[in-house]
């Protein structure tokens, strides 16, 4: 059906919607993070018919979502509405789509090299906590789910509390752009030198807050690079070509 309007995805709403012409009527399709979709859902589609969503439905949906997440699958929730404008309210829940998005093959050896050199790798991601932990555990970044924290859990922390939290946390899930900034600033406030890489649209803004001091191999010579802003859109393994100094490496996954 022809698309006539769109509300793009952003990392605060964690949803995107498109409006389509459907015969003489219009329909709005919405996809995004399950929490965001369910927070705006009023109905559920069952056997082709709409009915009000019940607590039992929500519990079952979260159970299925957890099963997918523990298998390191990324999950999108799907919904629609027949509102006149794209307001992402009173949605009709349709279902879940689970996708495999495995870590790059070179990521695990790179993390192992960092650990040997005394570098701590931190995962900062928009993924669900269970999905993030499954991937982080596979890569050797986190050992237990207790090392994972949700972005909403740090929203109201003081600077001092966040500084203490980052000392023991290895995975930050469902984060906002502001969370990314505050996490990196907390690591720096603890005396760590941080390097951050990411491929998300918000990562360049967050990297502004970093001071990176590394050694890069350029034309077989070691050169010292100091930068207040360094945008890195390269695989995590590219860091393994650096001289491995003892500093915390904050890796952001969007």
Write the layout of secondary structure elements.
Elements (H helix, E strand, L loop, with lengths): L2 E5 L7 E8 L2 E8 L1 H6 L1 E6 L2 E4 L2 H16 L2 E9 L9 E10 L6 H10 L4 E5 L3 H11 L8 E3 L8 H7 L5 E3 L3 H13 L5 E3 L5 H5 L4 E7 L2 E7 L21 E5 L1
Parallel strand pairs: 4-7, 8-10, 8-14, 9-10, 11-14
Antiparallel strand pairs: 1-2, 2-3, 3-6, 4-5, 6-7, 12-13
Explain how this protein is built.
The structure is a single chain. It contains seven helices and 14 strands. Helix 2 packs parallel to helix 4 and helix 5 packs across helix 6. The protein is elongated, with a radius of gyration of 21 Å. A hairpin with a 7-residue loop joins strand 1 and strand 2. The strands form three sheets. Strands 1-2-3-6-7-4-5 form a seven-stranded mixed beta sheet. It has a five-stranded parallel beta sheet with strand order 9-10-8-14-11. Strands 12-13 form a two-stranded antiparallel sheet. With 254 residues, it is of the alpha/beta class.
What percentage of residues falls in helices of 4 or more residues?
25-40%
Please identify the structural class as seen in this structure. alpha/beta
The major β-sheet equals: 7 strands, mixed
Which descriptor suits the 3D outline?
Answer: elongated
Q: Averaging pLDDT over every residue, what do you get?
A: 81
Distance between the amino and carboxyl termini: 30 Å
Low-confidence stretches: 208-233, 242-254
Order of helices and strands: EEEHEEHEEHEHEHEHEHEEE
Q: Quote the beta fraction.
A: 25-35%
Query: What is the count of helical runs?
Result: 7
Gyration radius, to the nearest Å? Answer: 21 Å
How many β-strand stretches? 14
Q: Spatial order of the strands in the main sheet?
A: 1-2-3-6-7-4-5
